[in-house]
Specification:
Shape of chain B: globular
Distance between the termini of chain B: 52 Å
CATH architecture of one domain in chain B: Orthogonal Bundle
Strand order of the largest sheet of chain A: 2-1-3-7-9
Radius of gyration of chain A: 24 Å
Distance between the termini of chain A: 77 Å
Largest interface: A-B, 104 and 106 residues
CATH superfamily of one domain in chain B: Cytochrome-c3 Hydrogenase, chain B
CATH topology of one domain in chain B: Cytochrome-c3 Hydrogenase, chain B
Largest sheet of chain A: 5 strands, parallel
Order of helices and strands of chain B: EEEHHHHHHHHHHEEEEEHHHEEEHHHH
Oligomer: heterodimer
Shape of chain A: globular
Structural class of chain B: alpha+beta
Number of helices of chain A: 16
Structural class of chain A: alpha/beta
Number of strands of chain B: 11
CATH class of one domain in chain B: Mainly Alpha
Chain lengths: 369, 573
């Protein structure tokens, strides 16, 4: 007799996680997903009572950074989701079986759970010649089409599966295509980034488990909860941008003070992701915080959006050239000329405040030493 | 009559690998290794800014993440004559150390352990016995009876759910599994702990490079600035964080990884210490510079070649010498303009995808023709093994004291002769011993970084040749790195400040490649010959040897550009 599948809650309790930790996890996930606090109860209830979701996870044209990111999920319970809270029945990086035994694993899921399982995809699909990616003698396209046919939904992990990523960069020698371009008739959730942030991946999985439906998506198929804000708008260095304080070359005085990286080519103003909010690897840091401009890895076609270290000429909503040049480079002159305009004045004031504070701090240090 | 067995996909690796073996009377008599996915990253690099290349080639692999980016910045710096500040060298070393430790631990527990550890047998392990064994081999605190009882309970609940997830269809109960149930239970507990551990140490990458996988690199140094009086830079708090991560890593490696490795090896040494040796030639480019990359003698990890397992002589490696490294495509799905029988140095490399295999779906590859997307590199015509075993042997044969100490003490503990190193188990053990060395080096680099900062040097970047206007019209460079999986090299040709040609010769290309024009097998294929297979339909033994190399196929397969070009200037290491 086959036993009833345990719920997520039963699983985590069995693993020695306390109820308090479980509730804390639910609250965190609720917050990440942008659900109001009143929704916590719903998350708790869903995870306590729902059986595990069968998942088939394919690797096609990829580098396995999505799998690697997934196992970095920072919360302890998020790490345990990866292993067994969903029923990860086929995952080439982690699974014990190889060869025919491995193939049987996903075929079993397709037979036992039609219409119920989720297909997760890491990697793009070559269309120039199907033989550019084969597993078990079958092409990526053949495998994907067959598995998707009876699935409930498809999760496209990372930039490869969402937009083709590096192999689709010009001239795209293998005709690499994202999942949504080669299949139809099923919802596809594009979880962008190269790779996506671990906790964003966990958040998407929990959403599927909790609400039994796919999260709200933007017009590019990305979950709104994580991809509705520009890195620029959530950047902790934003005040420096507004004040016209920029890094002019790597490791200069501005860099040592954490000024804005716009002039070094930062793509934060045109990139939608949660780096500034959730950050990477347990909230440790994110690219800008560690001194490198955002390269825009969560956007389709970012590899072809000009050299990484060339500053964006302009972007919607901001007179960026004006702001950066007049406030930043030409500050002294601009001030002397008494430029009007509230925004500019505010920015100059901010610039002064920041620099004055820093000067005061360094003076006091000099006095002390 | 020999029976042909196909194993595809080979799981618990990076990328897409297919192995076909011929078995006669329970012994492997022939083997073919095929990479079955191609992306074409070198072609995509053409015409781009050389300073951007690290990000593109970084995406060659997300498992050995950062290692291609490091190779790339070294390659561009070599071409343009840029030397990086001492702090940048130390930070790069620390990031590479973090990768080694994290990647080797993940390999041992997550990718390799299930070849030796029977998860189902752990269900009948006695927690008291597991605790007694664990305490006898290590002072790791999580070794109580209660702890193992809890792990066993979790495992039982998992198995009873009827949904085995990643453990479904494993080879449980196979007679080649030899560990007692209590040891299996201990190993499963540590498998779960390793999964927790691995996500911690990578924070070294996040601190210096902003994220992991795929941290950021920079031509000329590193992107992070040091300012001990500023919250927005690498300061005392960030440095303390790095120090703690490495201290914790050293503890885990010394108290969990190494004791487990030795314990498991003691049950398998009699047969697997003699199976799977394969090739007899070993190559290492060396790494972890302590006085600039142009001084290989300063490397913690020495450079060299060993031929015919002769540990009394270490041969010199000159990667920019066109006669030393050549690549062949006689059995790979590419074609050369001069015919497929010739070998080309990567600077003269050519590419033309030429798939001639069967149309999918297919049952077998025709191995008498081209049968892989992996090219076949040779060093002075020799097939070479690369990776931890090669590095340990080169270090040992070079007379390095730290290498001699860990190797000799391990051989003594296991009571095996030095020849046991030339085996599947030797390869797996070498990876662990190397991890131990790496932990110590990391703490040394960390201390040097602190000392530099204390002495007033906070520079992390050399901007002298940042602007393309400062570059020559043409330039040519090589970058080498010892990646966790072995000797890695990139080759660049820059023309009019753009990439004209960019090529990679990758560890798994050396190890996983098909036969050369002389019919010589590469490392994977050679290492499988003679291996006993108890049940050809459940080829656990094949996985043991293939996994001992830690395959990384996305790295191994790539496309070369068509035009080799003639450039006047390049620097040699």
């Amino acid at each position: 007799m086959e036993k009833k599948q345990p719920s997520f809650y039963e699983e985590v309790r069995a693993e020695g996680i306390t109820r308090k930790d479980f509730l804390k996890f639910c609250a965190t996930m609720t917050a990440f997903m942008g659900i109001e606090a009143s929704g916590i109860g719903q998350v708790v209830k869903a995870l306590e009572t729902k059986p595990r979701l069968p998942v088939i996870w394919f690797h096609f044209q990829e580098c396995t950074c999505c799998s690697e990111s997934f196992i970095r999920a920072s919360h302890p319970i998020a790490a345990s989701i990866v292993l067994d809270k969903i029923s990860l029945d086929y995952q080439e990086t982690l699974m014990a079986a190889s060869g025919v035994q491995a193939e049987e694993a996903y075929k079993t899921v397709m037979e036992k759970f039609p219409g119920e399982y989720i297909v997760m995809v890491e990697g793009s699909i070559p269309t120039e010649n199907e033989a550019y990616c084969c597993i078990g003698g079958r092409s990526a396209l053949q495998i994907l089409e067959e598995a998707v046919a009876n699935s409930k939904a498809v999760v496209a992990w990372g930039n490869c599966a969402s937009a083709g990523c590096v192999q689709a960069a010009s001239p795209n020698p293998t005709g690499a295509q994202p999942v949504h371009k080669v299949i139809s008739g099923k919802p596809v959730i594009n979880v962008q980034g190269c790779p996506p942030i671990a906790d964003v991946m966990a958040g998407v999985v929990v959403h599927l488990l909790t609400f039994d439906r796919i999260p709200q998506l933007d017009n590019l198929g990305r979950p709104k909860a994580f991809y509705s804000r520009r890195v620029h708008d959530t950047c902790y260095r934003r005040a420096n941008f507004d004040a016209g304080l920029f890094v002019e070359s790597f490791d200069d005085e501005g860099a040592k003070k954490g000024y804005c990286l716009y002039k070094m080519g930062c793509k934060g103003p045109v990139t939608y992701n949660s780096c500034g909010i959730i950050k990477w690897n347990d909230g440790t840091s994110y690219p800008i915080q560690s001194g490198h401009p955002c390269i825009g890895c969560a956007e389709a076609g970012f590899w072809d959006n000009g050299p990484f270290y060339q500053r964006l000429p302009s972007f919607a909503g901001f007179g960026i050239e004006t702001t950066a040049d007049k406030i930043g480079v030409g500050l002294g002159v601009a001030t002397a000329a008494g430029i009007a305009g509230h925004a500019i004045v505010t920015n100059i004031r901010k610039h002064r405040e920041i620099t004055n504070t820093q000067e005061a701090a360094s003076e006091s240090e000099t006095t002390n030493s | 009559m020999a029976e042909r067995i196909v194993i595809d996909p080979i799981t618990r690796i990076e990328g897409h690998l297919r192995v076909e073996i011929e078995v006669k009377d329970g012994i492997i008599t022939d083997a073919y290794s095929a990479g079955t996915m191609v992306r074409g990253i070198e072609t995509i690099l053409k015409g781009r800014d050389p300073r951007d290349a690290w990000a593109f080639v970084g995406r060659v692999c997300g498992v050995c993440t950062s290692t291609h980016s490091l190779t790339s910045v070294r390659t561009v710096e070599n071409a343009l004559g840029i030397s990086v500040p001492p702090n940048a060298e130390l930070i790069r070393n620390l990031m590479a150390n973090a990768l080694y430790i994290q990647d080797h631990v993940v390999h041992f527990y997550v990718l390799h352990a299930l070849d030796w550890v029977d998860v189902v047998s752990a269900l009948s392990g006695d927690p008291a016995e597991a605790s007694q064994i664990a305490q006898s081999i290590s002072s790791w605190p999580k070794s109580s009876v209660g702890y193992f009882a809890e792990v066993k309970k979790r495992l039982r609940n998992f198995v009873e759910s009827g949904q085995l997830g990643i453990f479904a269809n494993g080879y449980w109960g196979h007679k080649a599994y030899k560990l007692p149930p209590a040891v299996n239970l201990m190993a499963v507990a540590h498998y779960l702990e390793a999964l927790e551990f691995q996500k911690e140490l990578v924070k070294v990458h996040t601190i210096f490079g902003g994220k992991n996988p795929h941290p950021n690199y920079l031509v000329g140094g590193v992107p992070c600035s040091i300012n001990i009086d500023e919250a927005n830079a690498v300061n005392a708090e960030r440095l303390a964080f790095v120090g703690k991560l490495f201290e914790d890593a050293k503890t885990f490696v010394e108290q969990v990884y190494i004791p487990d490795l030795l314990a498991i090896a003691s049950f398998y040494k009699s047969d697997w210490g003699a199976i799977g040796g394969g090739l007899t030639n070993y190559l290492s480019f060396g790494d972890f510079p302590t006085n600039g990359y142009n001084n290989p003698e300063s490397f913690k990890m020495p450079r060299g070649v060993i031929l015919g397992r002769d540990l009394s002589k270490v041969h010199e490696v000159q990667a920019d010498d066109p006669s030393q490294i050549q690549e062949f495509v006689n059995n790979s799905w590419y074609e050369y303009s001069k015919g497929d029988g010739v070998g080309l140095h990567p600077w003269e490399g050519e590419t033309k995808l030429n798939y001639t295999g069967p149309k999918p779906p297919y049952d077998h590859l025709d191995v008498s023709q081209k049968y892989s997307w992996v090219k076949t590199p040779r060093w002075k015509g020799n097939a070479m093994e690369v990776g931890p075993l090669s590095r340990m042997l080169v270090g040992y044969a070079s007379g390095r004291e730290d290498y001699k100490e860990v190797i000799e003490s391990t051989l003594k503990t296991l009571d095996v002769p030095v020849e046991a190193l030339f085996s599947t188990l030797g390869r797996t053990a070498a990876r662990g011993l190397e991890t131990k060395l790496t932990c110590d080096w990391a703490l040394g680099f960390y201390q040097q970084l602190l000392d530099n900062i204390k002495n007033g040097d906070s520079r992390t970047q050399n901007n002298e040749k940042w602007e393309p206007e400062s570059w020559p019209e043409t330039a040519k460079g090589i970058g080498m790195v010892e990646a966790p999986r072995g000797a890695l090299s990139h080759f660049i040709v820059i023309n009019q400040r753009k990439i004209e040609n960019y090529q990679l010769v990758v560890p798994t290309t050396w190890n996983a490649s098909p036969r050369d024009p002389e019919g010589k097998r590469s490392a994977y294929e050679e290492s499988l010959i003679g291996t006993p297979v108890a049940d050809p339909n459940i080829p656990l033994e094949v996985l043991r040897t293939i996994h001992s190399f830690d395959p990384c196929l996305a790295c191994a397969v790539h496309v070369y550009d068509e035009n080799g070009s003639h450039v006047h200037e390049f620097k040699t290491y």
